[in-house]
Amino acid sequence: MRHGKKINHLGRTSSHRKAMLSNMATSLILHKRISTTLAKAKELKKFVEPLVTRAKEDTTHNRRIAFSYLKSKDAIKALFGEVIEKVGSRPGGYTRIIKTGFRLGDNAEMCIIELVDFNELMLKDAKPAKKTTRRSRRSTGKAESVEAAPVAAPAAEAKAEEPSAPEASTEGENEEK
């Protein structure tokens, strides 16, 4: 029985698994998106997210620890540079797994794992989100007064513009006569 054994060994020895995750993490950091199997992506997420959290504080110690995991200077530069600029303000959840279907050869479940703030298509979709309002049975006086205030401001602007409007209409009448 596997009581409490949470790690997925992925059918590999410990050294092979560490090397594979290190290489996949380096590719993810450099390319921002990679395609892999779902099982590998879930393990990669557990491997990469603590590194990104550690990279929020740019110290020599944190760089050396990240290098011991990734073993690539280019990946360290990208992680502590452009990756942290985009995801540094997030409290967690730096990666996203999107399922893409099944591989033809062995029917393994495939997916794309990507760094969250680097997908421009999803960022564009997130911007035009509608403002949601909370509906309740009882209306409060506060909500009505807040709605009334912005309506009053355009009315004042309209009154200020009214004196110029009759002048424009008299010019049009003069042209007709």
UniProtKB/TrEMBL annotation:
<dbReference type="GO" id="GO:0006412">
    <property type="term" value="P:translation"/>
</dbReference>
<dbReference type="GO" id="GO:0003735">
    <property type="term" value="F:structural constituent of ribosome"/>
</dbReference>
<dbReference type="InterPro" id="IPR036373">
    <property type="entry name" value="Ribosomal_bL17_sf"/>
</dbReference>
<dbReference type="Pfam" id="PF01196">
    <property type="entry name" value="Ribosomal_L17"/>
</dbReference>
<dbReference type="InterPro" id="IPR000456">
    <property type="entry name" value="Ribosomal_bL17"/>
</dbReference>
<feature type="region of interest" description="Disordered">
    <location>
        <begin position="128"/>
        <end position="177"/>
    </location>
</feature>
<dbReference type="GO" id="GO:0022625">
    <property type="term" value="C:cytosolic large ribosomal subunit"/>
</dbReference>
<comment type="subunit">
    <text>Part of the 50S ribosomal subunit. Contacts protein L32.</text>
</comment>
<feature type="compositionally biased region" description="Low complexity">
    <location>
        <begin position="142"/>
        <end position="168"/>
    </location>
</feature>
<keyword id="KW-0687">Ribonucleoprotein</keyword>
<protein>
    <recommendedName>
        <fullName>Large ribosomal subunit protein bL17</fullName>
    </recommendedName>
</protein>
<dbReference type="InterPro" id="IPR047859">
    <property type="entry name" value="Ribosomal_bL17_CS"/>
</dbReference>
<keyword id="KW-0689">Ribosomal protein</keyword>
<comment type="similarity">
    <text>Belongs to the bacterial ribosomal protein bL17 family.</text>
</comment>
<feature type="compositionally biased region" description="Basic residues">
    <location>
        <begin position="129"/>
        <end position="140"/>
    </location>
</feature>
